[in-house]
Task: structure prediction
Amino acid sequence: METLELTKNRIRQYISVGKRFDGRKYDEFRKIEIETGISKKAEGSARVKLGKTDVIVGIKMGVDEPYPDSQDEGNLMVTAELLPLSSDRYELGPPRIESIELARIIDRGIRESKFIDMKKLCIKEGEKVWTVFIDIYSINSDGNLIDAAAIAALIALKNSKMPKYDKKEEKVLYGEWTNDSLPLRKDIPIPCTIYKIGKSFVVDPNLEEEDSSETRVTVSISNNDTIHALQKGEEKELSIEEFEEVLNLAEKNYKQLFPVIEKHMK
Amino acid sequence: MTKEFKRPDGREIDELRKMKAEVGVVPNADGSAMFSFGDTVAIAAVYGPKEMHPQHQQNPEKGVLRCNYNMMSFSVTDRIKPGMSRRSQEISKITEWALKPIVMIDEYPSTVVDVHINIIQADASTRCAGINAAALALAHAGIPMKNLVSSVSIGKLDKQLVVDVNKSEEDWEEGEGATDIPITMTPDGKITHIQLDGKISSKQLKEAVELARKATQKIYEVQKKALKDGVK
Result:
């Protein structure tokens, strides 16, 4: 259901004096619940809940030809399905812009940070490389799907095992796994989405808050302050001062999320 | 030969895998449920009754039940491309027909009740798990219903009938191979859905239906308990 204009205005009023309906501080996440091993058939999988927001991410691997501009590197493919099961706002049919943007934001955070060592996913230069499929599904949509999906993607990658590959037959032995994890680097690209509501900034909005927001910025940060991907979404503009505030908040957010995610990265 | 027959996972021939059921797993939905047979896990969410869009699909005389079944790309070892396949479209329709006899939505003209089913992890019998979850989700949503339905897959492995087929049984190759018979029934033994792939005599098929009747009774108890636990 759409959020009423009345509710949105009340949310903006509240936030302007530093209050949120559910009593959280502006920079406070909802309860984060993380579960792994959601599908035994996947190379890896994770389910992340931020309050009532619930997302499942699964990793599958395939073998394909490399792209012309990266002959000795594996491929990465990220898709997101905003399931009609997860909200009455989503409909069946081909992916709409919301799910395409979500998948692309997650894609760039992982791709640009070089979190996956793509060179190690080359089987035979110019001919055969691994493709990593990251598939995102919303189970219950209650705001901030971006961060939930990005966290789930990182953890699913981490608990993935490489499938067995028959070099002679040049095919993947699906359903059989090696003991090798995916080649991942140490620096984890943590997603931090900052939402502007009225004149204030918050993290991890629920759906009503997200509806009241007119601008958001997603920043993927690793190693405390290295930014790998960034995207401003939605209609309203930001002043330079505000943009700097966003970056400061994102860094703060990184410090909050890093230990939570790192715990599942060992 | 029946004495010597061993199922791959050591179950008795009429033994279901461990079942789990829970309602309320999708807070946004009007009703929702999870149902699993061993490693086969389905979730279902119900939205409605609500105004039917597109409008030309409205039925001014009665409400419409619309089901949508799909598998997550990583629910099986060979990745499935996201989106609806011919298989998932057919199962969606079959699911609709399996549920229709128990759902009383004639009184809601021009509306639709949407049932969305997703398979998170697949180890065969996914449509049965989906139907069981969907029946629960409909009840959880408070949709008027005559009863629940319960669904189970009866298999014939070579010549032996078994209850609740898993993937290694579905791929059975010895002797006459595998015959898969998913069946959905009401607690009073009415068949709302039956399909068959393989090879079986009509006499043995009757035995399969009898096995399904007993198995669906057990499933029904699990479903009832989930609904009761859901209101605690």
Summary: Residues 17-230 of chain B form a domain with the Ribosomal Protein S5; domain 2 fold (CATH 3.30.230.70).
